[in-house]
Amino acid sequence: MKTIITDVFFDLDHTLWDFEKNSALAFETIFKNYQIEIDLDKFLKHYIPINLKYWEMYRMEQITQIQLRFGRLKDTFDLIAYEIEDEKINLLSDKYIHYLPKYNHLFEGTIEILEYLRPKYKLHIITNGFAEIQNNKLNNANISHYFQTITNSEMAGVKKPNPIIFEHALDKAQAKKESSIMIGDCLEADIYGAIHSGFEAILFNEHKKTIPENIKQVHHLLQLKKHL
């Protein structure tokens, strides 16, 4: 690192909290409860990229939270030719949000790396997720106590990569950008957003996607020990 790091900011979903695994469990539950006769693997194969597309649109302020929650399900059901009424989609959307934070699978190494980092740095969260849901995820996964501050897009009024959310997080943490680092899975939102805001940044690149050579990356959370 170029400077002495004092504050480490983490993204939550897809970085510490295993979104895809927990999401699959939530869908499994609601499909069973509401007699949705769909092959779960087939559904998820289409839902996962559609959800990512909708989150990108949401991040770019192109759609609302309501449009995100409805649209990602509607598009998936349409793609697999499953007939379902809009009213039922809205119900499933609400139930999905209810069940999602009840599951608490974390990426391998999450607890160990947080235990390793906590004595050395002040730890924080910056997330584009919805406040109540993200807080429930942190509490149910029993990791909220590791973080001194939690900044979400609702309180900041903008989403990563907007520099305002990073400034908001810095103010809340009483940290300096020159001594802060961001760790997240999204190259655009987490890494470029942090770098353009004056942070250091490390990409959690679990799937080993090809990225620019100048971007620091780890494929497993415990590899952060080499950088911090």
From TrEMBL:
GO molecular function, one term: 5'-nucleotidase activity
Pfam families with a match to the protein in the record: HAD_2
PANTHER family: PTHR47478, PYRIMIDINE 5'-NUCLEOTIDASE YJJG
Protein name, UniProt field: Noncanonical pyrimidine nucleotidase, YjjG family
Organism per entry: Flavobacterium luteum
